[in-house]
Amino acid sequence: MLAGAAVTLGRLSDVLVPLGELFAAQGHELYLVGGSVRDAVLGRLGTDLDFTTDARPEAVQRILRGWADHLWDTGGLAFGTVSASKADQQIEITTFRADNYDRVSRNPEVTFGDTLADDLVRRDFTVNAMAVRIGAEGALEFVDPLDGMRSLLAGVLDTPAAPEDSFNDDPLRMLRAARFVSQLGFDVAPRVRAAITSMAEQIDRITAERVRVELDKLIAGAHPIDGINVMCETGLADRVLPEVPAMKLEIDEHHQHKDVYWHSLTVLEQAIDQEDGDPDLVLRWAALLHDVGKPDTKRNEPGGGVSFHHHEVVGAKMVRRRLRALKFPKQFTEEVARLVFLHLRFHGYGKGQWTDSAVRRYVTDADDLLPRLHKLVRADCTTRNKRRAAALRATYDELEDRIARLREQEDLAKVRPDLDGNAIMELLGVPPGPAVGKAWNYLKELRLDRGPLTRDEAEAALLEWWNARK
């Protein structure tokens, strides 16, 4: 694997060679470090390169000035980090660190170290504690004092020191472990899993914003189900995303129903299979959370049945509450909640009994989320009954065909009343106010029910409605 990493880094010689020579000429050491080394070994190195050095930040700035295409300070200088870009590579160079944590917040007292060993031992996991010395004339030297390569080959996440000490210093590392499980497909070492389980409540020290970033990276990973399971099995999810483990409903012999938790993970997996390119976070979050309303709406029915009436309504409210608590952007929150609210509507379609009016409302309510809603509804079919699954797919195919046919006849993307506000005020002889809004809503409902109207038809219908109100 080291040979593969050498080949990968060799492709970056235009950046690494001159950079190593610049630092060597000033008498300083320079190492590629952390995730950059890990990803180079795994053959997945991107365009972000992380380095560490014995040079202080001001010296790093002097060395880079004139060589880097761009050089900037995004607030990292106080933490010893200088950011730059060269060609298509984003570069961060951080002075050796030997931080101390107050173990109340996660804020370190930044102190610069003097050796690479001190810097590596403070890192989160051994797979992120490997380094490659960038010497003069392109010389590369692999440095692995903490056996990170052994952990990498085994696919195991372990901490450089005792995990309890590492997580006390920075509890976010517990959530980061679940994130790396999702991104890398690794497992966590038994002692790490035990430490997370016993210390899960310490994640409460971390701000919602930092938690949200880790959760997004986890959901966007190649193996999000594994990462979610780690969170749920260790108790982390109870602290940061309690609605997910709450879906593990007890199943008894008299009231059989699907395990909602595993059903939701299956829906997430099937939604991912429908993605066209980069991870779609709105779709993934909606797939994971689409049934969070079921625990609160579960009812055992006579004869052994189970019902979850209006769980999509309850679920949408729960999603809004949780995503707001995690400080997600407002638009993102509303899009996920709207998909959760709409995901069940298709099941009222039956065998195609919807009127054109109902189809228009389906499209209008989904608006620009319609392509994601299509994917979510299809992913929500997890029945093992092949005949039923095929029937559901065929029925949804037929609904999509109806939508396409209506789109050919009407502009479904812009379903609006056939009269605007000015025309309404002129026709009814009313000033701006609530009456205009009510009239506008009436015309929109009429448009959804009957399709496009001529101006004369819209005016006649509005006057009839207005006179009836009087």
UniProtKB/TrEMBL annotation:
An example of a Pfam family matching this protein is HD
Please name the InterPro entries in this protein's record: Bact_CCA-adding_enz_type3_sf, HD/PDEase_dom, HD_domain, HDIG_dom, NT_sf, PolA_pol_head_dom, PolyA_RNA-bd, tRNA_adenylyltransferase
Domain (HD): residue spans on this chain: 260-406
Keywords linked to the UniProt accession = Coiled coil, Magnesium, Metal-binding, Nucleotide-binding, Nucleotidyltransferase, Transferase, tRNA processing
Which sequence ranges form a coiled-coil region, renumbered to this chain? 389-416
Question: Magnesium: present as a keyword of the record?
Answer: yes
**SUPFAM superfamilies hit by this protein:** Nucleotidyltransferase, Poly A polymerase C-terminal region-like
Going by the entry's taxonomy, the superkingdom of the source organism is recorded as: Bacteria
The cofactor required is:
Mg(2+)
Can the keyword Magnesium be found in this entry's annotation? yes
**Which PANTHER family does this one have?**
CCA TRNA NUCLEOTIDYLTRANSFERASE 1, MITOCHONDRIAL
Query: What is the protein's given name?
Result: CCA tRNA nucleotidyltransferase
- In which organism is this protein found? Nocardia callitridis
